[in-house]
């Protein structure tokens, strides 16, 4: 087990982490203290960038098959339309928000993981761990109560907002708790005034009401309960939820059945470093924020995908530079901070209590969100296709109009960057790309030039972001870059 990666947490983030590592040939063990898979639908939105990245393992198509495609986001206030955002203009092979219960997403990931010989071990509790330069020892309690110590190479904490791993490391989870109570639920309903391909946010003077349709007769509904008190919030039952919808909604919506309800408070918190030696934190263990925009699960799954290829290169001995693993925190922590800020901003805008400010908000939002550039900026942020790593230590030499660290836009029908059994960089270009692949066969694969690449070689990371770009004739400028990340170079005549 010494070369295994231990993943604490068998939710969507942990399962994504395990699937990526297993796909790249890295031994993994996934544990979760919960004795069985959950059947509640906590997160419902899977955004385009997450689907693009899941396409590399083949899981995207199966998740899409069980979800509902939403292509329009409506915002209304006082019975009037404030804005209508078109998601089908998102520059992606998946121009929609997919609404799917979290347990369905997890089931797909588990099936793909099982096909690679990995089954999560449920009912196994991580009690603690020690680490040194040579590895990590995990203290585990098995389902029968037996305690044992097992060796691992790395530990990835995907164990949620109350992370045992984070507490064991003594890392601060800095941030605040917003002063409102909330309730949410999955309901069957009739009379929803939009097709199932459109979500709706109703701004109301007493608090917002949000509908995320998962089917023509089913939706996730979220609303605020009012200022927090010393008493924990209590979820509304169907009758109380109906009264809230009648008061804040457009009228005519009738709840016909309840799948699940809960109450919560919004925390905005982030750990100060996503790495501590051989331990990495991902998802809610590293950052939590408002559910506005539905970014939480997606951000966590993308944490896992960012980290997995780097761990795979190091564990398999394909590259060795310390900057590879160091880059995880440097790349993903700013993304987590941005999501916290953006979702918090959306929440505060939707919960304005002052009537004058509400009118100003409605007017400004109507004007601004009617502008195409503003719509593209908002939907690009929601879809996470605008996220990149401009300040990454893994960025190399760059020429041309594209930006280092930017997402390399996938093309429908083409093999996605990072697919396959090895985490390869893709050199997109002419003769120079073939030369690079020949010099670094364990790390680089050659491909045709990108449609927007011009006369350049674009070096694309295994997670689909631009690492470097030079003129094709100057391909040798990428050799030092690949050597700096620890790649082994074959002799020119090899």
Topology, element by element:
Elements: E1 5-8, H1 12-23, E2 28-32, E3 45-46, H2 48-54, H3 59-65, E4 68-70, E5 72-77, E6 80-86, E7 97-99, H4 102-114, E8 121-122, E9 125-132, E10 135-141, E11 147-152, E12 154-157, H5 164-169, E13 173-190, E14 198-203, E15 209-215, E16 218-227, H6 238-248, E17 254-271, E18 275-276, E19 279-281, E20 287-288, H7 296-315, H8 322-350, H9 355-368, H10 372-383, E21 425-428, H11 431-439, E22 444-447, E23 456-460, E24 466-471, H12 478-484
Parallel strand pairs: 1-2, 1-12, 2-8, 5-14, 12-19, 21-22
Antiparallel strand pairs: 3-7, 4-7, 5-6, 9-10, 10-11, 13-16, 13-17, 14-15, 15-16, 17-20, 18-19, 21-23, 23-24
Helix pairs in contact: 1-4, 1-7, 2-3, 7-8
Description:
- The chain is of the alpha+beta class.
- Helices cover 30% and strands 29% of the residues.
- The chain has helices spanning 12-23, 48-54, 59-65, 102-114, 164-169, 238-248, 296-315, 322-350, 355-368, 372-383, 431-439, 478-484, and strands spanning 5-8, 28-32, 45-46, 68-70, 72-77, 80-86, 97-99, 121-122, 125-132, 135-141, 147-152, 154-157, 173-190, 198-203, 209-215, 218-227, 254-271, 275-276, 279-281, 287-288, 425-428, 444-447, 456-460, 466-471.
- The strands form 5 sheets. The protein has an 8-stranded mixed sheet. It has a 6-stranded mixed sheet with strand order 8-2-1-12-19-18. A 4-stranded mixed sheet has the order 22-21-23-24, with helices on one face.
- A hairpin with a 2-residue loop joins strand 9 (125-132) and strand 10 (135-141).
- The protein is globular, with a radius of gyration of 23 Å.
- The chain starts with a strand and ends in a 10-residue tail after the last helix.
């Amino acid at each position: 087990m010494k070369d295994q990666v231990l993943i604490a947490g068998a939710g969507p983030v942990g399962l994504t982490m395990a699937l990526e590592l297993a796909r790249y040939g890295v031994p993994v063990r996934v544990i979760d203290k919960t004795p069985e898979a959950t059947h509640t639908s906590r997160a419902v939105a899977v955004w385009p960038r997450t689907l693009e990245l899941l396409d590399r393992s083949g899981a995207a198509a199966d998740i899409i098959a069980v979800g509902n495609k939403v292509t329009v986001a409506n915002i209304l206030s006082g019975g009037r339309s404030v804005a209508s955002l078109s998601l089908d203009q998102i520059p992606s092979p998946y121009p929609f928000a997919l609404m799917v219960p979290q347990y369905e997403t997890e089931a797909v990931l588990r099936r793909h993981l099982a096909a690679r010989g990995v089954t999560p071990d449920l009912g196994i509790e991580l009690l603690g761990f020690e680490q040194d330069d040579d590895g990590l020892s995990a203290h585990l309690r098995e389902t029968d109560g037996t305690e044992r110590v097992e060796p691992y190479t790395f530990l990835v904490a995907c164990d949620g907002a109350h992370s045992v791993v984070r507490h064991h490391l003594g890392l601060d989870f800095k941030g605040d708790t917003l002063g409102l109570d909330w309730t949410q639920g999955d309901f069957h309903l009739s009379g929803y005034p939009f097709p199932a391909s459109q979500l709706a946010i109703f701004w109301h003077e007493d608090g917002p009401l949000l509908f995320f349709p998962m089917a023509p007769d089913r939706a996730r509904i979220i609303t605020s309960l009012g200022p927090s008190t010393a008493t924990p919030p209590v979820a509304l039952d169907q009758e109380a939820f109906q009264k809230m919808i009648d008061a804040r909604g457009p009228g005519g919506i009738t709840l016909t059945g309840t799948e699940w309800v809960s109450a919560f408070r919004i925390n905005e918190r982030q750990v100060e470093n996503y790495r501590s030696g051989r331990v990495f934190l991902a998802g809610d263990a590293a950052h939590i924020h408002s559910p506005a925009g539905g970014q939480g699960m997606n951000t966590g799954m993308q944490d896992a995908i960012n980290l997995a290829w780097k761990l795979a290169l190091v564990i398999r001995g394909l590259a060795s530079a310390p900057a590879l693993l160091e880059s995880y925190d440097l790349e993903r922590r700013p993304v987590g901070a941005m999501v916290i800020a953006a979702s918090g901003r959306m929440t505060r805008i939707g919960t304005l209590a002052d009537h004058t400010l509400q009118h100003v908000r409605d007017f400004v939002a109507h004007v601004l969100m009617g502008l195409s550039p503003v719509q593209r900026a908002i939907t690009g942020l929601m879809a996470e296709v605008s996220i990149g790593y401009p300040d990454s230590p893994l960025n190399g030499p760059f020429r041309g109009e594209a930006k280092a660290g930017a997402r390399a836009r996938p093309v429908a029908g083409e093999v996605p960057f990072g697919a396959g059994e090895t985490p390869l960089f893709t050199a997109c270009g002419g003769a120079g790309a073939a030369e690079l692949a020949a010099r670094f066969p364990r790390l680089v694969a050659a491909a045709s030039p990108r449609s927007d690449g011009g006369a350049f070689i674009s070096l694309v990371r295994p997670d689909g972001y631009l690492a470097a770009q030079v003129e094709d004739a100057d391909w040798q400028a990428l050799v030092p870059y690949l050597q700096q990340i620890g790649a082994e170079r074959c002799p020119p005549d090899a």
